[in-house]
């Protein structure tokens, strides 16, 4: 039985500007997305006819509600493929955290099954399928550093801030993306326009400017809904962290650090409450990676 294991990486939003609502009800955003090397482990095993998923995390849907299953079924329909697959997911990315873990798993399934089933779909074709699955899935497939427009899915590559360290602080708060956007709709305010400064800083390779420019229009809304978001920010600032902002629709808050070692030191200096996760990591050039030559 052939199988393939992939690492599916999380993303943070170095900026997230909400520009208004689109006619289809979604929100128009401008955002700078950055892959980090915190990753789920996704193993794909050939199976006779069905798509099934196994996951060690209780918050992850077991069946068709799982975005990884949606990705496999979409690929099967598109390619007229009748073979099945067992998808095994070992979660390292906190769930419903603003880190796009579900999108990362779905992107890994698209990329991996194209290879395992030898479908020969082009990168462009995979990207189109990714766009059908969700606004964050195209970036999860591409990875690196990118400006996202539209719903966040129209991507333009940006220079990678090579080696930059990141500390993720995830309070155990539940914040549904839809609820955060509803909060924004209830009191829409003009965007603080963080993205142009982040793009300028990345283009100039200026880490200090980058730390000053990060920000997220949804953070004030998320703080009102979940005080833990403000507490996470406060804990990082009290430890002397810079480049602090919320990722996506929260509740994860991140800080930037000079490199992985500095991220580890900052993480070790924090005293999180029970149940909180503090995860030091580093920016990554790719969204999906093969840990070793393991197809066979
Ligand atoms: P989004 O902003 O896309 O709503 P997120 O980045 O905040 O998501 P995810 O970890 O992707 O967070 O989880 C969002 C929701 O998706 C969860 O409530 C979960 O039930 C569902 N979900 C579906 N498939 C997965 C998966 N493979 N891994 C994690 N969550 C999944």
Describe the structure.
The protein has 296 residues and is an alpha+beta fold. The chain has ten helices and twelve strands. It has two domains: 156 residues, Ribosomal Protein S5, domain 2 (2-Layer Sandwich), CATH 3.30.230; 118 residues, GHMP kinase, C-terminal domain (Alpha-Beta Plaits), CATH 3.30.70.890. Strands 1, 2, 3, 4, 5, 6, 8 and 12 form an eight-stranded mixed β-sheet that branches. A hairpin with a 6-residue loop joins strand 9 and strand 10. The termini are close together. The structure holds adenosine-5'-triphosphate. The site of adenosine-5'-triphosphate (ATP) has 22 residues, from helix 1 and helix 2.
Name the shape in a single word: globular
Q: Taking Cα atoms only, what radius of gyration do you get, to the nearest Å?
A: 19 Å
Supply the CATH class of the largest domain. Alpha Beta
CATH names the topology of the largest domain as Ribosomal Protein S5, domain 2
Number of helices: 10
- The percentage of residues in β strands lies in 25-35%
Structural class: alpha+beta
Give the helix proportion (percent range): 25-40%
Query: In total, how many beta strands?
Result: 12
The CATH architecture designation of the largest domain is 2-Layer Sandwich
Quaternary structure of the protein: single chain
Stretches where pLDDT is under 50 for at least 5 consecutive residues are none
């Amino acid at each position: 039985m052939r199988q393939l294991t992939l690492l599916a990486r999380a993303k943070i939003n170095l900026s997230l500007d909400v520009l208004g609502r689109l006619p289809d009800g979604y929100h128009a955003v401008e955002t700078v997305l950055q892959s980090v090397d915190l990753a789920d482990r996704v193993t794909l095993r050939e199976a006779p006819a069905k798509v099934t998923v196994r996951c060690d995390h209780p918050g992850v849907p077991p069946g068709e509600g799982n975005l990884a299953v949606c990705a496999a079924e979409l690929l099967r329909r598109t390619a007229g493929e009748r073979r099945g697959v067992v998808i095994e997911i070992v979660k390292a990315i906190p769930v419903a955290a603003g880190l796009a873990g579900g999108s990362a798993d779905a992107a890994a399934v698209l990329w991996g099954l194209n290879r395992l089933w030898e479908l020969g779909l082009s990168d462009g074709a995979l990207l189109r399928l990714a766009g059908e699955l969700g606004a964050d899935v195209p970036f999860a497939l591409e990875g690196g550093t990118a400006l996202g427009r539209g719903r966040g899915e129209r991507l333009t590559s940006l220079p990678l801030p090579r080696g930059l360290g990141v500390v993720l602080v995830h309070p155990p708060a539940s914040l549904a993306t839809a609820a955060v956007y509803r909060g924004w709709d209830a009191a829409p305010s003009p965007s603080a326009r963080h993205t142009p400064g982040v793009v300028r800083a990345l283009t100039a390779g200026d880490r200090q400017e980058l730390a000053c420019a990060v920000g997220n229009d949804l953070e004030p809304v998320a703080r009102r809904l979940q005080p833990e978001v403000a507490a996470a920010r406060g804990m990082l600032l009290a430890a002397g962290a810079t480049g602090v902002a919320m990722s996506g629709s929260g509740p994860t808050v991140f800080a930037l650090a000079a490199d992985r070692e500095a991220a580890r030191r900052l993480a070790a200096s924090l005293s999180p409450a029970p149940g909180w996760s503090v995860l030091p990591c580093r920016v990554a050039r790719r969204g999906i990676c093969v840990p070793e030559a393991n197809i066979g």
